[in-house]
Each structure stands twice: as C-alpha cells, then as structure tokens.
Amino acid sequence: MVAPPDNDVLWARGLHHAHGQSPALTGISLGVREGEILAVTGPRGCGKTTLLKCLSGQLVPDSGEVWFNSHPVHTLSATSRERLRLDRFGWIGTEPRLVPELTARENAALPLLVRGDGRRAAMQAATEWLERLDVADCAKRRPAALDRAQQQRVAVARALTTTPQVLFADEPTAPLHRADAAQVLRTIVNAARSHALSVVLATQEAEATTLADRTIALLDGRRAGAAQAEGPAETEGREECSLSV
Ligand SMILES: Nc1ncnc2c1ncn2[C@@H]1O[C@H](COP(=O)(O)OP(=O)(O)OP(=O)(O)O)[C@@H](O)[C@H]1O
C-alpha cells in the first residue's frame, strides 16, 4: 500500500466493485481535499452510489484502496468502519428516511444519541442545526407533518449534528421540485462552506455542478474525465446564499 498525498482528506485508488455479477466500479481513482465540494455526475447506473458507499466505508470494494486522513479504510473491521462513519462522516440520501415516530429534533439528534452522547447535549446540537437550516419551527413536529423539502432539511441536520469531516450526499435533491431542490442544495453547500467540510455530492443537477469546486463524470463504472473547468467554477462555487448556516 502507498500512502495518499497529505492534502487529500479522502483518497481512493483503483476501486473495483461488483454487485453479484453486475460490475458497478471498474477502476476509479480520486482525491478530495479539505473543504472541497466534489460533484460526481453521470447517467443512471454509472456507479455514483456504489462509489459513495465505498468511499464512506459502507461497502468494502472488491479491490482498490480508500484512505481517510492518511489511514486506510478498506482494511478496517466492520465495527471500526461503523465508528468512523458515526464520528467523521455524514450521509444524506435521496430519501430523507426519517423515523416516523420521532420529532424532527429527535431525528436530527439520532446520530449523537446512537454514539452515546448525552441527551441534553444531543438535543441542543440538533436544535442549533435545525435553526441554521431554517427549519427550527419544525422541531417538535413528526415527519408526516412536514413537507418533502422540510424533511430533507431535517435529514441534512441529522447528517451535520456530529460535525463530520466529510459529508456524502447521494442525489439529495432528486425527488424535490426545482425551487425546493435549489434551496436544499444551497443549504448543503453553505453548511459545507461555513464549517470547512469536504463534500462528495452525487448529482445530475446542473446547478450542483456550478456550485461545486470540481466535477468528475462517471461512465460505466469508471471516470469519463473532468466534466468542467476548475477555474471559474471554483469562484462561482463559493458564492454565498441567504441561509443562516
Ligand atoms: N444491490 C445491487 N444489486 C445488484 N446490482 C446493483 C445493486 N446496486 C447497484 N447495482 C448495479 O450497479 C450499477 C451501478 O449502480 P449505482 O446505483 O452505483 O449507480 P448510480 O449511478 O448511483 O445509479 P442511479 O442514479 O440509478 O442511482 C448499476 O448497473 C446497478 O444496476
């Protein structure tokens, strides 16, 4: 094994993975720098979700290496990968997947409670994130009483309450209407900017690639080449929005 470059928070080399007989990744290498928002684009089935799951330790690649902060992830035990995900990574999926019996605040506090933080501190952190994401008025409501965009913002809060170092977002705005999608996307970007988080964002939205620092395109499980120039996009990507994160 060769250690990754020092300035990459996350680094992967030669990732291959198949789901049964179905190849999903066929040799992907990439690095993500501290505070960088990296968009991963490509058509349905090109391997975006599988890539994010391998990078975040949810899946162990069939071959290849994943490193986080110069530590190998692909050789960790399942328990150590779980702990890593809980402490250092946040995950936002396409569906909010909130627990229906819990309030928005309890949902947002869940990762902290699962890892054993005190209830008072967990609820306080959840409240602060719901405020930053402009859904504080939803705190005491259950998911069924929230609209889709509010639910997804609560899911964003849940991913951020642990103050992760890397946030993985797998097509987080796909099921939303355009205006809601733009708002949720800017919420994620602004939270990342204000807290210097690295973000790996799987997306097919044009606006997402505009807000990202860098974009890579996948095709049939491998990189199709840089999809976007890095100079101007970086400037545009750092534009602020009105949300209070
Ligand atoms: N659990 C699974 N079992 C079998 N095949 C799978 C499984 N998950 C993904 N695949 C296959 O692996 C390939 C890559 O899928 P993946 O979900 O990673 O791509 P994607 O770019 O995220 O697609 P989408 O945009 O549809 O989510 C596809 O051919 C898909 O059908």
Automatic annotation (TrEMBL):
Keywords: ATP-binding, Nucleotide-binding. PANTHER family: IMPORT ATP-BINDING PROTEIN, LIPOPROTEIN-RELEASING SYSTEM ATP-BINDING PROTEIN LOLD. It comes from the Bacteria. SMART domains: AAA. One of its GO terms (molecular function) is ATP binding. The keyword Nucleus does not apply. Belongs to the ABC transporter superfamily. The keyword Lipid biosynthesis does not apply. This is ABC transporter ATP-binding protein. The lineage of its organism: Bacteria, Bacillati, Actinomycetota, Actinomycetes, Kitasatosporales. InterPro entries: AAA+_ATPase, ABC_transporter-like_ATP-bd, ABC_transpr_LolD-like, P-loop_NTPase. Residues 10-245 form the ABC transporter domain.
